[in-house]
Amino acid sequence: MLLDELRWFVVLAETEHVTDAAAELGVTQPTLSRALARLESQVGTPLFDRTGRRLRLNEYGQIMLEHARRGIAEMDAARSRIAALLDPDSGLVRLAFLHSTANWFVPEVLRQFRALAPAVRFELFQGAAHDIAERLRTGQADVAITSPRPVQVPCSWRVLYVERLCLAVPAEHRLVGRARVRLSEVADETFIALGADFGLRQLTDQVWAESGITPEIAFEAMEIPTMEGLVAAGFGVAVVPVPRPGRGDPSVIYVPLSDTRVKREIGMAWVKGRELSPAAARFAEFVSTTADHA
């Protein structure tokens, strides 16, 4: 089974359309169809259900997709490690990171590291905590900067920094001017929140439960800036990390929470027992050292 054919299968599984997959891969439809037929022959069963021109990944295909992604990631990692041994100052780091670390922490760390190791290449993925954990699990990411600590796979964990949470309210809100606020004081308010799978949302759910709140949620966003924008527009209030100076929404007031224990740990994770490439290990050590001196 050729590695290229596994890559083709992954693209076909993600698009579920031969024409679209062939165009993305730059191969002809007959070439892609023959490759799929060879793969299905080797596996011993169809991997897709055919409905007209559409393909639908079946239960066997789901299993193959999971292992194909993992196998491709392992082979890519092997090539990266070999390349790094041949040239210790180069190599590839596959880094996954939270949306909310993308506006200052991750770019600054990358800037500093690239000044020391300009030949090291990066494959970057920005997403939610559950997507990041999945990339770690399948080997598509070497290192992740995320929150909370992933539980989907056994991970080593290094806390990089801690964020206090606060209540974001519109500029004309009744709580503007307060030094701090208890969440129970806004139990009847409408909230803007992240989706249920996001790490910050899970922490917020915990805080709501501890405060005896069953919130009315007006909208579930994909990013914190969207939450803040909707708060500014008067659609509700939100629990968000205290923004760094100059980085919050200027139309939003951030009121500290009375419970100073309400915090979010941002950390670095990598899979236990999976050896990092020299480049990834070097980057992880650099991030740890940077956090120590932050």
TrEMBL record:
InterPro entries, per database record: LysR_HTH_N, LysR_subst-bd, WH-like_DNA-bd_sf, WH_DNA-bd_sf
Gene Ontology terms: cellular component: protein-DNA complex
Pfam families the record matches: HTH_1, LysR_substrate
Record's keyword terms, sorted: Activator, DNA-binding, Transcription, Transcription regulation
Record domain HTH lysR-type: where: 1-58
GO molecular-function terms, A-Z: DNA binding; DNA-binding transcription factor activity
Family, similarity comment: Belongs to the LysR transcriptional regulatory family.
UniProt cross-references to PANTHER family, sorted A to Z: HTH-TYPE TRANSCRIPTIONAL REGULATOR CYNR (PTHR30346:SF28), TRANSCRIPTIONAL DUAL REGULATOR HCAR-RELATED (PTHR30346)
Function, in words: Required for the induction the katG gene for catalase. Involved in the response to hydrogen peroxide.
The name this protein goes by in its record: Probable hydrogen peroxide-inducible genes activator
